[in-house]
Structure formats: structure tokens, C-alpha cells
Amino acid sequence: MPTRNGERQTVVFKIYETACRSALNRSRIPGIDYCLNPYTGCSHRCIYCYASCMARFNGHQEKWGSFVQVKTNFIEVLAAQLRRPKKGKVMLASVTDAYQAIERKYGLTQRCLELLTASGLEVSILTKSDLVLRDAELLKAMPAEVGFTITTLDDKLARLLEPGAPLPSRRLAALEKLARAGIRTWVFVAPVIPGLTDAPEDLAAITKAATRAGAQEVDFDPLNFYPAAVSGIRELISRYWPRAKSAFDHACRHPAAYRQLLKEIIKHSKSC
Questions:
Q1: Cα 197 from Cα 207, distance rounded (Å)
Q2: In sequence order, what are the beta bridge partners of 218?
Q3: Tens of pLDDT along 241-262?
Q4: Which segments constitute the Radical SAM core domain (predicted)?
Q5: What is the pLDDT of residues 45-54, one digit of tens each?
Q6: Burial class (CB in 10 A: 0-12, 13-18, 19+), 35
Q7: Bond from prior residue into 166 cis (ω within 30 degrees of 0)
């Protein structure tokens, strides 16, 4: 990630191998019955990540974004759980990105999909990675949808907000290829950041780009004013976009009012 003087920080990233007791877990997410999280932790290092609080529940002192736990027995546990028929929709993944960089080495997500093809479960994927293209043939063989989280179309801004994630341009290109392959695709514009990514013309541009690429749906999610997320974004805004700080701070002080305002901004952006 760039520093104030333009140099790049060296990120020390740790990988742990661990075991899990359960792979297929009940979900509280509306419309999702089960979730699969073959990894804990994430290399995307998004400064607004809501899952950063998970680090303390896994006994890690490292900062979220600097480690990943690989659940090495995940496939065996999932196979055992799928022996009993299940119905509904399963999400990959609810706490981390199932297609983050470590998936290239371990392939747990791919092996999960191989098991799910015969399960009868619907599959919903939400990712920031074009690595999902690798599994297009598996996804075509089951009832599946793939959503891409896109916070901004500006690759330079995205590199600051999500320094370890594939660029938005790569995500849109992957979405287009999946859509052409007949897989349902959608875009999750999240989070919408006050003063930084919430201009009506910017949100309209994402909607148009997503639609052109073949997305069947575009959803928007306002920033969750979680303290760690607010702190990281405020620091970034103060450093690179000080003119946006007033709007951001005002939204932080009045989150309910901002969410209502954003509804109007989104409504306007869709008519642009």
C-alpha cells in the first residue's frame, strides 16, 4: 500500500493450517440457508472490512488482513455433512473471500464446488476476485450465481481501499465472461463511502458498467459505521482527499440521516 511519500509498505502475511469441526453452517443472512468459509482471514486487506473483529475470536494477535487460516480438513468435513440431504442456498463465503489468493495453492473452494454439484443445493458466490473464472464449468453444472463486490470503478482508488484485491476492471471482465457462459451474475456496490464514492454520477457509472457486462442485478450497501472501518477510511481521506473529510465526518455523526440521503442518491443515480 502506498505511504505518504509514495513508497510501498511491506506487508508481512502469515498462513496457518488448522482443522475445523463443521464446514456447512446455518446462515442468518436473508435468503441464504448455509454458508461455507474454507478460510478464516483475508489477504485483500480492505480498509473498510467489517470482518476484522473476527481476528480476536480466532486467537490471533495479528491485524486482520495480515493472516489466513486454512482449514485443511474442510473438504472431508463437508463431504460428511453432505451425506444427509440438504435443501436451500449455500453462500461461499460469508466472512471472507473464498477466492482470495491462497485459493490458488489450496483449492478448497474448487473442491467444495465439486462436492456441491451433486448436493442439490443452490450456490451463491460473492467475491472480489477473477479467480472464480477457473471454476466456470463447475458453476455451469449447478444452480449458481456469482456476485462481484465493486466499491469504485477507479482502479487507483481501489488499490488504496482494497490493496490486496484484484482491480475492479478485472472483476468486470470476469463478470462479463461468466455472464456470456450463461451464469447468473450481479454486482454488489459496497460499501458506499460518504464523500468518497457516493457521487450520483459515480454510482450511475457502476450501474451502467455492470449492466453492460451482463449483471442481472446491482445492489447498493451503505458503509457500516463500524469503528475500525471508520478509523481506516478517515485516515485515508485525511491523507489523500482532505476535501471529502467534512462530508465523511458528517455522515459518521448522523448515520441514519446519511442512509436516507443515500437512498435518494441511488434513486437519482439509476435515472442518470
A1: 13
A2: 187
A3: 999 999 999 999 999 999 999 9
A4: 28-264
A5: 899 987 655 5
A6: buried
A7: no
Supply the pLDDT for residue 67: 85
User: Residue 9 pLDDT more than 70?
Assistant: no
Q: How confident is the model at residue 5 (pLDDT cuts 50, 70, 90)?
A: very low
Euclidean distance between CA atoms 51 and 42, whole angstroms? 9
Sign of CA dihedral 183, 191, 161, 56: negative
| Residue ranges with strand state E in 37-129 | 39-41, 67-71, 89-92, 122-127
Identify each DSSP E strand in the chain by its residue range. 14-18, 24-26, 34-36, 39-41, 67-71, 89-92, 122-127, 144-149, 184-192, 218-222
Distance of CA 270 to the CA centre of its chain: 23
Beta strand spans in 5-151 (E): 14-18, 24-26, 34-36, 39-41, 67-71, 89-92, 122-127, 144-149
